[in-house]
Design brief:
Blueprint (H helix, E strand, L loop, with lengths): L15 E5 L2 E6 L8 E3 L25 H6 L13 E2 L3 E2 L6 E4 L26 E2 L7 E11 L1 E7 L8 E9 L5 E5 L12 E4 L6 E11 L5 E2 L1 E6 L3
Antiparallel strand pairs: 1-2, 2-3, 4-5, 6-8, 7-14, 8-13, 9-12, 9-15, 10-11, 10-13
């Protein structure tokens, strides 16, 4: 039978099942869903593409290359390498530059907060500001534009002189800053490590902890770390 420019139509109540011997190969339509196609064997594409995939909503659904590229994964390792090496020298090879609004003395410099390890209270172990209790800050300039999803902070070892009204900011030029995270203050940064999730889709290369208000005479940090998304 010849049907010009028309497909052959097969109409059944429970779909059309293709078998090879006693093995099911595929079924076009089922009793539950007439639009469903079920494959019982491996689908070999012979170097052809599967196209027009929708945005997946279930864990087992296939995703397009565009969707995968646009949904970066969280990197679980800290982004900032140790910025101090033996002899108290700045690790300038890492490409990260730490700075702060002030420092108590040479032993309390901003890079101490980015050690990734703790050398003890006081000199070499933490950053402390110089007599600032309002509008103080510590910043890290990164070598690349990155998108962060978490920041980890720890205050000074003494658990005093704590920062308690603060925010995390991002910038692309070191001059104009965007607020990325501001907790329901007051949130005290004491001598326990605290993790704060960041919700942003933008990339920056400057990240700053800006403090509106703090305790004591020389508030500061013993640890600050960024966690980023992969590209």
């Amino acid at each position: 039978m010849y049907l010009p420019q028309q497909p052959v139509t097969l109409e059944t109540d429970h779909g059309f099942l293709v078998k090879t011997g006693n093995d099911d190969v595929c079924q076009l339509g089922t009793a539950d869903d007439s639009s469903e196609i079920v494959f019982h064997k491996v689908l070999r594409m012979n170097s052809n593409a599967i196209t027009n995939l929708p945005i997946p909503t279930l864990p087992h659904e296939a995703a397009s290359n565009l969707y995968v590229d646009a949904n970066a994964r969280k990197v679980l390792n800290g982004y900032i390498p140790p910025l101090r090496s033996q002899g108290n020298r700045n690790n300038i090879k890492a490409g990260c530059v730490a700075s702060a609004s002030s420092q108590l003395a040479a032993n309390y410099k901003s890079s101490n907060a980015f050690n990734n390890y703790y050398t003890g209270p006081g000199p070499g172990g933490e950053w402390a500001s110089n007599g600032e209790t309002r509008d103080l800050w510590i910043q890290i300039k990164c070598p690349d534009m990155v998108r962060i999803w978490k920041v980890v902070l720890r205050g000074r070892e003494t658990n005093t002189q704590r920062i308690y009204r603060w925010k995390i900011e991002g910038s692309t030029d070191g001059e104009n800053y965007t607020t990325l995270y501001e907790p329901q203050n007051p949130v005290y940064l004491g001598n326990e490590v605290q993790q704060f999730l960041i919700d942003t889709r933008d990339k920056f290369n400057h990240f700053r902890l800006f403090c509106f208000q703090a305790e004591g005479s020389n508030p500061g940090l013993s640890y600050m770390q960024l966690f980023i998304y992969s590209d």
